[in-house]
């Protein structure tokens, strides 16, 4: 295996993905590479990934490396922090069987992760899943005790301009298969005109589909400036002590924002806000709702998500994976039926025309002559 190309370097994979133009080597420092990050690298049409950290630590079966392997994108894994700091943006490097060169000089090396190597490591990670599950359950229970105020009314919901009352609310998160699920419910969006809420990068997903988000909720670390400028309202998720690092970015753009100090995730407070302001129905796309999702986000438990979903109950419809439930197929028999249905009234109207009657009469005579032959 030999690859030579310029590199893009960043500690945050999602930030790096925005700079990819195609044909580069992505240099990241991402332990347990997650699904969303891997998909963003694939979309960037990279040639190779160099990871300073282990792409699969073995704690749990993370999905990112498998996505890259399926696209025949190799990972030069666990090359170390020292090499990561040495590499520079747009530097041209050559990678030969896991060894990394620049101008003929060996800079370092790492383990080559191809399909077989990834499969083996994921299998080992599944064997460790029981240990991680025990730890995850314990953390969830501990955090639930601390964060129960989220559903007991102890967390103050800030005043917002957006009118949620008696309306459907669509909350879009940049999670697993969010694009496929969003495309599946386009007819729902067009018919019901729900309040559109983008959680960080979920706002850009809405814009990509031609919609303007009514609200953006999040810590503002993965949403574009374009989305922030287009939206009607911004809610910055802050720490419980009131610190809101994302607020400065919004203010630097000359925009106003509502600050919401709360535990949990941004998607949790987006749902909670819609519920408290009396939304009729909350539809969620791309949200994180299982152990693997949360471990990929680097969270040790899912207390806030469990508590919020417990509170909002039947008002929530989770559309995650809906693209697998329903896939439209336009069958040939339906096409013929549609054509015949469209032609039928035309033929009826045309039959009253003298010229058409004469044409039909001539055709009948020709058929008779042919049959006599």
How many domains is the backbone divided into?
3
Q: Can you count the helices?
A: 17
**Unreliable spans:** none
Could you give the count of β-strands? 15
Mean pLDDT: 85
How is this structure best described in words?
The structure is a single chain. With 373 residues, the protein is an alpha/beta fold. The chain has 3 domains: 125 residues, Phosphohistidine domain (Glucose Oxidase, domain 1), CATH 3.50.30; 178 residues, no CATH class; 40 residues, no CATH class. It is 44% helix and 18% strand. The protein is built from 17 helices and 15 strands. The strands form 2 sheets. The protein has an 8-stranded mixed sheet. The chain has a 7-stranded parallel sheet with strand order 13-12-11-10-9-14-15, sandwiched between helices. Strand 6 and strand 7 form a beta hairpin. Helix 2 packs parallel to helix 3. The radius of gyration is 28 Å and the shape is globular. The model has no long low-confidence stretch (mean pLDDT 85).
Question: In a nutshell, what does this entry contain?
Answer:
The protein has 373 residues and is α/β, with parallel strands linked by helices.
Topology:
Elements: E1 2-9, H1 13-17, E2 25-28, H2 35-43, E3 48-51, H3 64-70, E4 75-77, H4 81-86, E5 92-96, E6 99-102, E7 105-109, E8 111-113, H5 115-127, H6 129-147, E9 168-173, H7 178-184, H8 186-192, E10 195-199, H9 202-208, E11 215-218, H10 225-230, E12 233-238, H11 245-252, E13 258-261, H12 266-276, E14 281-285, H13 291-296, H14 303-312, E15 316-318, H15 322-325, H16 332-350, H17 354-372
Parallel strand pairs: 1-2, 2-3, 3-4, 9-10, 9-14, 10-11, 11-12, 12-13, 14-15
Antiparallel strand pairs: 1-5, 4-8, 5-6, 6-7
Helix pairs in contact: 2-3, 6-14, 12-14
